[in-house]
């Protein structure tokens, strides 16, 4: 039985999760370390004045979704892979530990589960492996998914209808093209198309109020993570991802005994499940 079949009687058919500062807490320190590495990259490789870097980094993040996207819009030229390798290469991944509570929660959910992150494939894979939840998700929508290189890529989760010409148009994309990323409505709508989900039956979990607002504008059901207070566009609020069962019991409703048996089988066989990068 596939994931859609399991959850046909449930309120939601898909759960779309942001990753950084959503599946693990902001207090891990990865966020601040990543910002520091971005500032170093701006200083050493783009030769931006040292006194301008911190403010510029934060401003571009706020205005463009990510500092990287903002730098591209300003006309700075650099290789995307080299940027990601630099800013993620020195992150304190050791701060992330296996999270059996999160793992058990994810495995008990009957819906399809996908990661939707602005990060690149390498970082997403490493974080999920460190948390011990790499096999809990059907796929990963990441930087490469929304910003494919010049060479056409096969979109695993996309149907031919998503791309009338048969494949995504990458003919005009260069290393200096505009970056598609959250919180842009275009990025979220692209993720919805690629994952082939019904937004009205999809729960979107994210720690960013901007991303939540865009998710709601795209028609998703939304959950702000890391806050006990609702933000504009949020349908639910979670202080921690670990509180999900208490705050959203409807995820587990409508399963029936057959669904519960399938969940048990999934837990037993979970190590055989492979996460696919949708890129």
UniProtKB/TrEMBL annotation:
<dbReference type="InterPro" id="IPR023214">
    <property type="entry name" value="HAD_sf"/>
</dbReference>
<dbReference type="InterPro" id="IPR010237">
    <property type="entry name" value="Pyr-5-nucltdase"/>
</dbReference>
<protein>
    <submittedName>
        <fullName>Pyrimidine 5-nucleotidase</fullName>
    </submittedName>
</protein>
<dbReference type="InterPro" id="IPR006439">
    <property type="entry name" value="HAD-SF_hydro_IA"/>
</dbReference>
<dbReference type="InterPro" id="IPR036412">
    <property type="entry name" value="HAD-like_sf"/>
</dbReference>
<dbReference type="Pfam" id="PF00702">
    <property type="entry name" value="Hydrolase"/>
</dbReference>
């Amino acid at each position: 039985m596939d994931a859609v079949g399991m959850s046909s009687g449930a309120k939601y058919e898909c759960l779309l999760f942001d990753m950084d500062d959503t599946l693990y807490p902001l207090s891990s320190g990865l966020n601040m370390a990543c910002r520091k590495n971005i500032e170093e990259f701006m200083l050493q490789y783009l030769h931006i004045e040292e006194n301008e870097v911190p403010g510029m980094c934060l401003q571009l993040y706020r205005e463009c979704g990510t500092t990287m996207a903002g730098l591209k819009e300003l006309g700075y030229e650099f290789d995307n892979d080299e940027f990601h390798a630099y800013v993620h290469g020195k992150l304190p991944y050791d701060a992330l530990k296996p999270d059996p509570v999160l793992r058990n929660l994810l495995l008990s959910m009957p819906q399809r589960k996908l990661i939707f992150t602005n990060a690149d494939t390498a970082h997403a894979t490493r974080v999920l492996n460190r948390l011990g939840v790499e096999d809990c998700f059907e796929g990963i929508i990441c930087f490469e998914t929304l910003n494919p290189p010049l060479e056409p890529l096969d979109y695993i989760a996309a149907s031919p209808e998503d791309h009338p010409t048969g494949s995504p148009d990458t003919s005009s994309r260069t290393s200096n093209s505009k970056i598609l990323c959250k919180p842009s409505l275009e990025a979220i709508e692209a993720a919805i198309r690629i994952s082939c989900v019904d937004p009205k039956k999809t729960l979107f979990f994210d720690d960013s109020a901007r991303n939540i607002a865009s998710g709601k504008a795209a028609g998703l059901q939304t959950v702000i993570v890391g806050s006990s207070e609702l933000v504009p566009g949020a349908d639910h609020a979670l202080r921690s991802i670990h509180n999900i069962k208490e705050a959203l019991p409807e995820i587990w409703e409508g399963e029936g005994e057959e669904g519960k048996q399938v969940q048990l089988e999934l837990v037993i066989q979970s190590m055989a499940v492979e996460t696919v990068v949708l890129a």
